[in-house]
Structure formats: C-alpha cells, structure tokens
Design goal:
- The structure is a single chain.
- The protein folds into four domains: 2-44, no CATH class; 52-95, no CATH class; 103-143, no CATH class; 160-270, VSR Endonuclease (Endonuclease, Chain A, 3-Layer(aba) Sandwich), CATH 3.40.960.
- The chain is built from nine helices and ten strands.
- The protein has helices spanning 29-39, 67-70, 80-90, 130-139, 145-161, 168-179, 228-246, 256-261, 263-266, and strands spanning 2-5, 12-15, 52-55, 62-65, 103-107, 114-118, 185-190, 194-200, 205-210, 250-255.
- The protein starts with a strand and ends in a 6-residue tail after the last helix.
Length: 272
C-alpha cells in the first residue's frame, strides 16, 4: 500500500501500489469536483480558446465571445431585447427588406369607404371589414346568375355524395318500394336543377318525402306560426312541383306523418 495526500482537502489516502499514483490524487469525487472548480477554469482548461471583445450594435455593451461564433454575424447584440429594439428602429419603412411602396388606399366594394392596406395586398384587399364582405356576398354576389348556378351545382353535388344516407321516413319508403319490386333511383338529379328523393323510371313518377317540421306540415304547424326556414322550404317545394309537372312528370309529395301512420295507404298512387 502507498500513502498519498488528497490534493483538495489534504487527507491521507492509501493506494494499492505506485501504478495508482496520478498527477493529482483525491479521496472522493466531491474533492475532485471542488478541485476542478478552483483550478480548471479560464486559461487553465486544456480546450480553452481566447475570447475577443465585441460590442452590442444597439447599446454598445462589451461582449466576450469566440471569434468562430461571431465571425459570420453581421450585427451582434448582447440580448434579445436589444435585437428587437434595434430592428424596430432600423427595419422600418424603406429599411425593411420586404418594404414595397408602403400602404396604398383602396375603396371598399360594398360601402365605398377608403381604407389602407400594404402594397402587396393591392389585388386581394377588396373590403374594409369582414362585415362588408359578408354583406356584399349575401346581398349582391349571391343574386347574380353565375353565383346562383354555382350554388345550385354545389347543392346537387352534395346530394349526390349523400345519396345512400336516407332520413328515417325516406328509409321506410325505400324499403316499401324494394319489398314490392319497384325499381327506383334514390337522390336522382333532374334537369341539372333539382335532386329528387326517388324517381321511378318505368312509371315516370317522382316521389318527394317531406319532413313534418322542416317543410311545415299544415296539420301540425299553422301557416301563421311557420318559421322563415319552413316558409323557404315550402317555396322550394312549390317551385320543384311546378317545374317537374310542366315537364310532364307525375309528382307525389308525401308527408312524414302519413308514412308512419299508414305506408300502404300513402303509397296507393302506385296501384300496387
């Protein structure tokens, strides 16, 4: 055994042989850590590289840093706050690399009020607010023939995609037709204007299933108590009925309540 002294606390340590003796010896890891904190700092560290003095671009404060870290930086700052403060002063107006001729004045398509927007938005900004945009679309653009046709096509396409999704009364009607071996086409688009609930090609019959609430069944909902949406549905039903009848189709509109009450009696127009 060889006796040595701990380089940190001076305590005697016994080692097994000379081969265990090092340049610095310690009695435990705590002493080893304390010794390194005292002596292996700054230029005493083997990987130490000399720091150079740099100055903050905003406040001119001295900054010690490695040349390899700072050499590619155009501007140097001591903190994020200084960077933001500098950018707010310098990168403004013509100093901003994304600056394009400043704000321009645009006239709102709906109310005619003038408002300012960045030059880059000159082809996109048309309204001074969302309210004006919504009102212009609902009161003006939606009334044009082009937009009405587009909305009609959107509705037809949506109905085509959901053709296998029957409502409860539609399912009852469909099962009745299937049980009686009547070939029908559910959710059938006609004249590129309507989508009817059922079309029977062999009889040239159109069947429309009307929900009691949404279409305002007069036996349940008096006309004077109908909501705006119910009146709107009734108007659409009337237009559809007149158009298809004028094109020599047999059109039958049946109520949800009648379907549940007596499906056979309700469908007696088929003469089954």
């Amino acid at each position: 055994m060889v006796e040595v002294i701990c380089d940190n606390c001076g305590k005697n340590i016994k080692l097994k042989g000379k081969s265990y003796i090092k340049k610095h010896n310690f009695c435990n890891r705590k002493c080893y850590g304390e010794f390194r904190k005292k002596y292996y700092v700054g230029s005493n560290v083997y990987s130490y590289k000399e720091r150079k003095v740099y100055y903050c671009k905003n406040c001119n404060k001295e900054i010690l840093s490695l040349d390899c870290v700072m050499k590619n930086k155009k501007n140097i700052f001591c903190s994020r706050e200084c960077r933001n403060e500098y950018d707010s002063k310098i990168f403004k107006g013509n100093g901003n690399p994304n600056y394009k001729n400043g704000d321009i004045e645009i006239k709102c398509l709906y109310c005619g009020k003038s408002f300012e927007r960045p030059y880059a938005q000159k082809d996109r900004a048309k309204y001074c607010s969302k309210e004006c945009k919504n009102k212009h679309w609902s009161e003006v653009l939606s009334k044009t023939p082009e937009n009405q046709e587009r909305l009609r096509q959107q509705g037809i396409n949506a109905m085509k995609k959901s053709k296998n999704k029957f409502t409860k009364p539609e399912k009852v009607v469909y099962e009745y037709l299937q049980d009686n071996n009547i070939i029908c086409i559910p959710q059938y688009p006609m004249y590129n204007r309507f989508v009817v609930d059922f079309y029977i090609p062999s009889l040239d019959i159109v069947i429309e299933v009307l929900g009691d609430y949404w279409h305002g069944n007069p036996l349940k909902y008096p006309k004077e108590k109908l909501t705006e949406r119910q009146l709107k549905h009734q108007q659409k039903d009337k237009i559809k009925m007149e158009y298809l009848t004028n094109n020599n189709h047999k059109v039958y509109m049946i109520w949800e309540n009648d379907i549940y009450k007596d499906i056979v009696k309700t469908m007696n127009f088929l003469n089954i």
